[in-house]
Design goal:
The protein is mainly beta and 248 residues long. The chain is built from four helices and 15 strands. It folds into two domains: 99 residues, Urease metallochaperone UreE, N-terminal domain (HSP40/DNAj peptide-binding domain, Sandwich), CATH 2.60.260; 107 residues, Sandwich (HSP40/DNAj peptide-binding domain).
Length: 248
Amino acid sequence: METEATLTFGDSIDGATVSLRLTGEAPCPTCHGTGAKSGTVPRVCPTCQGTGQTSQNLGSFAFSEPCKECRGRGLVVDDPCPDCAGSGRAMSTRTIQARIPAGVADGQRIKLKSKGAPGERGGPAGDLYVRIHVTPHPVFGRTGHNLTVTVPVTFPEAALGAEVKVPALRGAPVSVRIPAGTPNGRTFRVRGKGVRRTDGTNGDLLVTVSVQVPQKLTGPAREALYSFRDATAGEDPREELLQRAKQA
């Protein structure tokens, strides 16, 4: 059987127990899976002797196929159950509690052993496959076992260097040292603050800085920027780009 489950971003990282409502085939409650009407019992198929398989000899080789008389069940029902028409199966609905392991990703398909439909004639139950959907987080993203976050920094912090506080998914914020001259979009790595792996170790937190341009400037701030512009007037950040374009 296969079903789907939706988890929050945090539950996908930590693991969670979810309720799954399953609808599928199960032994008919009227005949208890025999397929025979109450008061009667199936008989062994005379064609395959209860094996559910018949063999055909084609000279140099032979092959087996499901018995056409009993359709592979090994039993023949002379007086079928009126509720399941002799199939021995009926639709049923049940709710189970399933433990989703920590670290699952969006779109991942996990297997829960023996949580599927009950087997034929008292056989073992099949497996249940659960397709996981993870709701996005407003702050964090994920790449494999690494968490990602974009942190805004001011131009002075990027140019002069600074130590900034960065949120962590669990626990207190962590400090990241931004060296002087950090360009926009640079990514820093905080070890061990990511998603837990199956071996017990953790991935990392990848911090990408986003240099913010102020939308409003006070008088002193504007004058300071004019002074900075005049002090760096001889530097053209596009000069190398223009030279390479001419050489192409």
